[in-house]
Amino acid sequence: MLSNRLAALLAARDIHYGWAIAAATFLTMLATAGAMGSAGVLIGPLEQEFGWTTAQISSAMAIRLVFFGLLGPFAAAFMNRFGVRQVVMFALVLISAGALGSLVMTQLWQLMLLWGIVIGVGTGMTALVLGATVASRWFDKRRGLVIGLMTASNATGQLVFLPLLAQLSEALGWRAALVFVVTMLALAFVLVGLIMRDRPADLGLLPYGAVSAPPPAPPRGSLLNLLTSPLIALRDASKTSVFWVLFATFFVCGFSTNGLIQTHWISICGDFGIAAVGAAGMLAMIGLFDFFGTIFSGWLSDRYDNRWLLFWFYGLRGLSLIYLPFSGFSLGALAIFAVFYGLDWVATVPPTVKLAAEKFGPERAGLVFGWIFTGHQLGAASAAFFAGATRTGLDSYMPAIVLAGIFCLLAAALILTIAPPVRAHFQTATA
Q1: pTM over 0.70, yes/no
Q2: Residue 317 has what pLDDT?
């Protein structure tokens, strides 16, 4: 296999194969995140071509975000059962099928099916859980850096493709933009097939930085047992107030990012006479600052109280959103918004993951965070629908933007109700 030859070539240059896996995962998450973000350029063209309202289109996008979130807790179970490469390749095929099918759709129910369910499920299988799985299996050292890079890839990828997709949509139509997305997914499919391996042991390697072999992979067991493990984790975690605080604050995180700005930003700017290409360029600027903000957040989360980090992240994001309706949407005002809002886009992820590990223990942190991430996507889905409904009913996005800002300020206060870190970890409740 190519991976064997590449591993030997890299080893001769004293480069661990884990970095090749990380690069393949980074690019894959970038491509799938671009597919998620492409929804932002579809609202206007779909309204014009089919006569669907913003609220109707937003409903499909909200369903997509719900499935994207609900798949998170189960994605790791599928990867354990079938292997990372097989799951990722299947997900890429599923996303591509949804995008290609939408090229010939004519009915609203087809939009609901293709973008709501098919693409929602596919992207949910390649969300943050993929990056966490790769980082934990392939890296003993530099794991935090790798997780930060994967998180930045997932979030930034939803933004950086938008200028190009907006240009393609304006010049050649929205179908041309989707063809570009499918092309990127096809390239990711080939890359995963050639390079991705499930574990370092498959190549006779140790994880990067490890001095001894990790415990052998647990037996695959039945699919039923793997699917029930996330439910058991939810049952136990839901008995604690910490879980609900993290769930609620991450709900606000999704409400104020993916569902609102990512989905509706181009339409929001369009209400103020800003062309789609210019609005997408501003969103890419947000993505650029997000990339550095997320990596810096990971560095801070290893050194400072994560509760106070989240307090400032949510607080500053809330103030930036409340500022936006009063900015006049001038170029300078939007640049100021892009800097402050962009630095906070997903900077909340590393501190939230750290708090989950501190409160629930390393063995359960991944599964519990999967459910916390579900809260994030439920918030995103709520914002996607609510913002579309206010635009249709009130002819304005401003109520949704102000509400998101207020929610962020409440989340900043709520996160401080978590007690400071203690030594004891979460223990599984016994039957």
Answers
A1: yes
A2: 93
